[in-house]
Amino acid sequence: MLKTKFPVSVNKISKKIGLFFSRIPINPNTWTILSILPGLLGFFALVYHQMFLGFVLFFISGFFDAIDGGVARVTRKVTKLGGYLDGIIDRIVEGLLLIGLLLFGLPDLVLFGYITPVYLWISLQLFVGSVLVSYARAYASHKGIISSEKVLSRMPGILERTERLFLIGVGMLLYYLQPIYTTYVIFIAVILSVITFLQRVFFVINYGAKK
Questions:
Q1: Which of 54, 112, 142, 179 is most open to solvent, judged by the fewest CB atoms within 10 Å of its CB?
Q2: Cα angle, residue 106 at apex, residues 103 and 111 outer, rounded to 5°
Q3: pLDDT confidence bin for 108, thresholds 50/70/90
Q4: β-strand partners of 111
Q5: Buried-exposed string 54-86: b where 16+ CB fall within 10 A, e elsewhere
C-alpha cells in the first residue's frame, strides 16, 4: 500500500539509503543474499523462544532487503536477475519468520466460542499473505494480461509485504504485554491478506476486461 500510494516518498527514502550504503563495496545482489543470514538466525531465535531477539534479527534482515534496492537504483545496477533474487529471498525470509512463530508456540485463538489453533492462522498467513498475494501479481504478468511495470506497480493492496511484516513485527513486540495479542495480530494479518489478494484479482479482471 505504501509503495502504491506514496511512490515518490518511498523512492526518496530508498535513494537516501542507497546513497549511504553504496559507499560499501558490496553489490546489490550480495546485499539481497546477505538478508537470509539474519533471517535464519531469527528463525532459530524463535525456535528457542527468544521473541525479542527474533524480532531484532528479522528487522535487520528487512533492512538489508531495503538496502539492496536502494543501492541498485543509485549505482544503476537494477537488473531482472536482481529483481528475481529479491523476490525469491523475500519469500524465504518471510517463510522463516512465520514458521519460526509456528514453532515458537503462541496461544490459540477463541473465535465465536470455538478454539481455533494458532497454527491454522499462521499457515493461512503463509499461504495467502506470502504466496497468493505475490502470485496474483506475478501470474497476471506471466499470462500477459498486464505487461506494463507501471500498471503492475499500481496494483492495489491494503497489506503488501512491507505492511505485512511491519504488522507482524508489532505483534511480536505485543507478545510481552500479553501473548494472545500476537495471535490476534496474525489473525488480523490473515484477514487483511485475503482482502489484498481479492483486490489484486479484481484489479487484474477489470484491467483485462478493458483490453
A1: 112
A2: 130
A3: very high
A4: 114
A5: bbbbbbbbbebbbbbbbbbbbeeeeeeebeebb
Q: What are the angstrom distances between the C-alpha of 185 and each of 52, 56, 98, 154, 195?
A: 16, 18, 13, 27, 15
Which residue is associated with the grid cell 518471510? 94
Residue type at 90?
Answer: D
Domain 1-105 has CATH 1.10.3720.10: no
Q: What is the residue extent of each domain of the chain? A: 1-105, 106-211
Amino acid, res. 119: Y
* 149-172: average pLDDT: 89
From the list 100, 86, 115, the residue with the least C-alpha distance to 54 is: 100
Q: How far apart are CA 16 and CA 67, in angstroms?
A: 10
Amino acid at 40: L
Residues belonging to the chain: 211
For the stretch 50-70, pLDDT in tens is 999 999 999 999 988 888 878
Closest CA to 96 of 19, 168, 24, 175: 168
What cell was used for 21? 550504503
